[in-house]
Each structure stands twice: as C-alpha cells, then as structure tokens.
C-alpha cells in the first residue's frame, strides 16, 4: 500500500520514541531483549507502509523472545499496534493473517508463559494442587491474551470500515459535484446555442432583407424611382426592428455576464418592469395565496414568464395588451400568458413562432409540471404552465 | 418576350421583394412567381414552368432541399425540361446547401453576394455550360464531407476516354465550354458534345454534379 511521506515519518518517529521508552527495561534483560525490541520497533515503523512486513517482524521478535526464554516485557505492547494495523491497513490476506496471528499468538503466549516457562524455570517441581492452580492460571491467561489481541485487531477493522465509508461518501460527493458541473455546462451550452440561433434569426435574416432591398432598389431606381423610396422605408423599418431585437439579446447576455444568481419569484417584478419599458402593454394579475416554492420551481416560473414575454415582444402584436397571470391554489401555481398574434406574423408552424417553446416545456416538465401552447383561431396566443408546489426543496 | 423566367422561393416576403426588384430591372429576366415555402414552390414550378428557381434552403413547413428533389422529380415525371435550381444560403459552409446540391440543385449563391454576381449566376445556370463558384462549391463539400474520405471511382469512370478525362478535369475546375475550347484548341461545339457525353456516362445531372463527383472520388488517370 502506498502511503504518504508524512504518515511514514509519523510512524517512524513514534516507533523510535517507543524504542527509547522500552529500552531501559530491555537493557536490564539480555541482548535477546534488545534484538526483540528492535524488531518490534521496526514493525511499528512500517505498520502502515507495509503491514505484512510489520506482522512478520513482530512474529520474529516474539519467537526470539520465547526461544531465549525471556519474560514478558513492555515492548510486547507493540504487538497490539501491529495487529491493529493489519486490520486497519493490510490487504485482504494480511488482514486475515492478523486475526490468525492474534489467535495463534494467544495460544503461544499462554503456553509459553503459563506452561513452558514455569516448567523450565522450576525444573519439574509440580505437586497436584499446583496442577489445579496452573490450569486456572492458564485459562485466565489465555482468555485475557486472546481478548486483548483480538480486540486490538477488531479496533483496526472498525477504523477501517469507518474510513471506507467516509471514502465512499467522499467519492459520491465528488461524483455529484462532477454531475452538477456537467449539467451546468450543458445548460451553458444550450444557452449559447439559443443565443446563436437568436443571432441568426434576428441579425442574419434582417441583414439579408436589407441587402436584397438595397440592391433591388439600386437596380430598379433608373426605371422606377418610386420603388427606391419604398425600399428605403422598408430598409429603415427592418433595421430598426433588428436593432430592437439585438438590444434585447444583448440585455440577456449582459444579464448572464453579471453571473447573477438564478432569478426567483421576487425577481419577477424587475422582469415585468423591463418588458414594460420595452413598450409592451402588460397586464399582470395574481390570485390566491402564494405557496413556498423550491428554487428550481421558482426559476421555472420566472423563465417561462420571461421566454413567453420575449416571444410576445418579438412575434406578437405589441399594440395589444398582453396578460400574464399567476393563479395559486393548494397544489401549486398556474402561469398563463395570453397575447395577440401580429397579423403579419409567421405561421404558427414556423420555427420563428415556435421559438423557445421546447425550452419552456422542458422547464415545466423538470418541476413535474406541464405546459400547454395554443394558437387559437381568434388570433390569440396562449401559453399555460402548471407548476406543482410539492417536490420542491426549500431554497 | 423570351427572357429567363425566374421563380423566387424564400420565407421572408421582404427579401423576395428586394430580389424581385433586382431581377425585374434586367430586360432579359422576368419573375414569374414567388413562394414562401417548399410546398408552394413545388406547386409554383409545376404551374409556371420557370427556367430558374432561386431557392432558400431553410424554410418552414418544407425546406429547400425537399422542394428541390420534388421539383426535379415532378419535371421528370411530366416529361418536361426541369428548371435549374439555385440555392440561396446565409452561410458559405452551409451543410443544407450541400444537401440541396446533392438533391439536384445547380449551385448555390450567398444571400450577401453582389447583385451582379447573383444576376450572372442566374444567366449562367440557365445556359448550363458553366459551373458557378466552382471553388466555393469544392470548399463547401470539403467542409461538409470532412472525415468521410474519398470514395473509389465507380466503374463508369473507366469508360471515359483520355480526351474526355482531360475535359472532365477542366470542367471540374469550373471552366466554361468557351474556356475549355480555348485551352484545348477545340471548337466550342465539340467541347459541348464531350461534356454531355461525360455527364451521360457518369450519370450526372449537370456540371455542378461533375464538380462534386470530382471532389468526392479518387479518380485515377485524371490529369
């Protein structure tokens, strides 16, 4: 397992400190104690860098200690750290080897401390009453050692699972952020395409007309001077209309540039004022009690109103009043927009007329709502959007 | 009057009006009708039998590509000479313009082209002995067809005589019959015969198709 330099340094420093603390006891013992201490310290130093080596070194130290018949010493505490590390940092194999080591180690330690060592030390001086106490002592020792060893291994396992959970959550969050970013980029891309389309519809079409009219008039003038005068009027009208559209487009762009937060219901007033300033006779009505709407739902209401009004301004009869209504009820809000079609406006099927409607519908559907568009025979154009109140998160 | 009969197809009435003034200022040209979408254009072509149709590609209801196909198919069905179709486009690298040419249009003109160029283009496609804006057409197909690579020459290519291949190469560069005749020391009538034989052998409708054919195929033995 790859670990950071800082972690390795920490482990080494702690191992050295451990070594110094245990050194006085080891020095009081034999040289074998010092070798075992060095092995245990080394095991602690690499416990995260290589749990496998750590486990091996600890086993080496313990076996050496037993072969040289040494007493239990302070440095044996290192075994707990090593077992903990096998569970917390080891690979699959090392982790389970750690648990096996805890069991086998407990058996070895008990056998060594309770049976082998006293036998060798007292060289066969065992009465029957001693046997009973020895069995009891052995059992107690075994239970204690296996409890301590397995407990430290389990602690490592616990830490590991906590860490894994946190890692999973962190990955999930990263994935969420990534997805949000992609969605954001998609929205930006859509917006850019929309602006490009608007530019084409407004600027390219108008300029094509201006060019055709100007060229036509220039060629027609020698024989029909009055045609030239008419053409000049047409050119001025088309250019004026295009400039108005460009102004609207730039206003939208500038709005985006400011990086302003997404508009909510309270921004609606600003939008209405803006549209009225552009020369639209807008009648706004609101009925019912406002419900708390989620931010996404508020944006949907705002954007649908904005897109609808822009369409009315661009393709509708600007001299007739435009009605925008918000009707609230217990379940949500109904946004309705009614405007008169211009007599010379493009046919209802044309793309200029249909412009923006897919976007409005998409916004309504994202909130779980619906959008209905009607181009009535009475030359009125109606957009009705239903935005439900539930499923909205508080802002 | 035996002028060239022109039909205008564009969804913007004011644009049509401008082009109409331009065309009607010419003694040899005559506007025989206007249409604002593809469907109306097919009907107009059937009714008025124009010589040249100026066709916008992007239109509501039915676009210029479909209209081009239908007008040519209808003329073939009725057994009359098909009109030449000139595509009007806003962008010089418009994929729709390329598709209209594949559908049988004789060339494309930008909406902001000089009026003199537009008028010349109408006369040129009507005569049918020269391709308008051959270089621009090649650039258009280079742009549209990028990445697709060239296809191997069809079997019909090998039926061309070496002489015909030479003339094919010149015509593919957009040269007129007169220019080809001058550079090859031939009479114009001979060149015309050669070109029509080339078009017949390769199964091409007209000279702009020849330019596209030259661009899209690997042509071994082409000078």
UniProtKB/TrEMBL annotation, chain A:
Gene3D superfamilies assigned: 1.20.5.1930, Histidine kinase-like ATPase, C-terminal domain
Keyword tags: ATP-binding, Kinase, Membrane, Nucleotide-binding, Phosphoprotein, Transferase, Transmembrane, Transmembrane helix, Two-component regulatory system
Domain DUF7134: 4-161
SUPFAM superfamilies linked: ATPase domain of HSP90 chaperone/DNA topoisomerase II/histidine kinase
CDD domains with a match to the protein in the record: HATPase_UhpB-NarQ-NarX-like (cd16917)
Record field: catalytic activity: ATP + protein L-histidine = ADP + protein N-phospho-L-histidine
Any single GO CC term annotated in Swiss-Prot or TrEMBL for this entry: membrane
Transmembrane intervals: 12-32, 52-72, 93-115, 135-159
Domain of life: Bacteria
EC number: 2.7.13.3
GO molecular function (one): ATP binding
Alphabetical list of PANTHER family matching this protein: NITRATE/NITRITE SENSOR PROTEIN NARX-RELATED, NITRATE_NITRITE SENSOR PROTEIN NARQ
Listed name of the protein: histidine kinase
Source organism of the structure: Agromyces cerinus subsp. cerinus
TrEMBL record, chain B:
UniProt keyword list: DNA-binding, Phosphoprotein, Transcription, Transcription regulation
Naturally occurring in which organism (per UniProt): Agromyces cerinus subsp. cerinus
CDD domains xref list: LuxR_C_like, REC_NarL-like
GO BP of this protein: phosphorelay signal transduction system; regulation of DNA-templated transcription
Cell inner membrane found in the keyword field: no
Residues recorded with modification 4-aspartylphosphate: 56
Pfam families: GerE, Response_reg
Protein name: Two component transcriptional regulator, LuxR family
GO molecular function: DNA binding
Residue ranges occupied by any Response regulatory domain in the UniProt entry: 5-126
Domain (HTH luxR-type) ranges: 153-218
Domain of life: Bacteria
KW DNA-binding (keyword) present: yes
């Amino acid at each position: 397992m790859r670990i950071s330099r800082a972690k390795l340094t920490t482990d080494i420093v702690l191992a050295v400190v451990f070594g110094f603390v245990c050194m006085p006891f080891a020095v009081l013992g034999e040289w074998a104690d010092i070798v075992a201490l060095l092995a245990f310290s080394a095991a602690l130093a690499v416990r995260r860098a290589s749990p496998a080596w750590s486990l091996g070194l600890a086993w080496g130290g313990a076996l050496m200690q037993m072969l040289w018949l040494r007493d239990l010493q302070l440095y044996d505490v290192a075994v707990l750290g090593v077992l903990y590390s096998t569970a917390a940092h080891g690979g699959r194999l090392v982790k389970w080897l750690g648990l096996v080591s805890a069991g086998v180690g407990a058996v070895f330690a008990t056998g060594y401390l309770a049976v082998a060592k006293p036998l060798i030390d007292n060289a066969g001086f065992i009465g029957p009453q001693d046997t009973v106490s020895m069995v009891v002592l052995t059992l107690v020792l075994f239970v204690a050692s296996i409890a301590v060893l397995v407990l430290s291994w389990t602690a490592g396992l616990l830490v590991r699972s906590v860490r894994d959970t946190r890692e999973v959550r962190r990955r999930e969050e990263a994935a969420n952020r990534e997805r949000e970013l992609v969605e954001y980029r998609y929205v930006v891309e859509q917006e850019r395409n929309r602006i490009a389309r608007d530019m084409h519809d407004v600027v390219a079409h108008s300029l094509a007309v201006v060019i055709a009219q100007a060229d036509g008039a220039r060629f027609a003038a020698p024989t029909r001077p009055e045609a030239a005068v008419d053409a000049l009027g047409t050119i001025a009208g088309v250019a004026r209309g295009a400039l108005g559209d460009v102004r609207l487009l730039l206003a939208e762009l500038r709005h985006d540039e400011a990086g302003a937060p997404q508009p909510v219901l309270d921004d609606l007033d600003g939008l209405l004022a803006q549209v009225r300033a552009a020369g639209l006779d807008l009648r706004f009505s609101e009925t019912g009690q406002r419900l708390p709407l989620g931010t996404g739902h508020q944006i949907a209401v705002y954007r649908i109103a904005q897109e609808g009004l822009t369409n009315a301004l661009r393709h509708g009869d600007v001299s007739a009043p435009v009605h925008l209504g918000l009707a609230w009820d217990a379940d949500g809000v109904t946004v309705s927009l009614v405007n008169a079609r211009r007599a010379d406006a493009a046919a209802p099927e044309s793309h200029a007329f249909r412009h923006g409607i897919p976007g409005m519908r998409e916004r309504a559907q994202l909130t779980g709502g619906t959008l209905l568009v009607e181009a009535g025979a009475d030359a009125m154009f109606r957009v009705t959007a239903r935005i439900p109140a539930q499923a909205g998160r508080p802002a | 009057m035996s002028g060239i009969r022109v039909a205008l197809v564009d969804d913007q009435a004011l644009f049509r009006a401008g082009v109409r003034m331009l065309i009607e200022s010419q003694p040899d040209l005559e506007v025989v009708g206007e249409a604002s979408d593809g469907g109306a254009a097919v009907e107009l072509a059937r009714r008025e039998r124009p010589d040249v149709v100026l066709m916008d590609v992007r239109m509501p209801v039915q676009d210029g590509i479909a209209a081009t196909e239908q007008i040519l198919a209808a003329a073939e069905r009725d057994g009359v000479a098909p009109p030449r179709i000139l595509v009007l486009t806003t962008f010089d690298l418009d994929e729709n313009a390329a598709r209209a040419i594949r559908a049988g249009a004789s060339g494309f003109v930008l909406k902001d082209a000089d009026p003199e160029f537009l008028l010349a283009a109408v006369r040129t496609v009507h005569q049918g002995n020269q391709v308008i804006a051959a270089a621009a057409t090649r650039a258009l197909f280079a742009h549209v067809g990028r990445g697709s690579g060239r296809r191997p020459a069809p079997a019909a290519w090998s039926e061309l005589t070496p002489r015909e291949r030479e003339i094919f190469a010149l015509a593919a560069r957009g040269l007129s019959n007169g220019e080809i005749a001058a550079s090859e020391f031939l009479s114009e009538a001979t060149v015309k015969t050669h070109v029509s034989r080339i078009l017949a052998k390769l199964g091409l409708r007209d000279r702009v198709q020849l330019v596209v054919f030259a661009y899209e195929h690997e042509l071994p033995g082409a000078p």
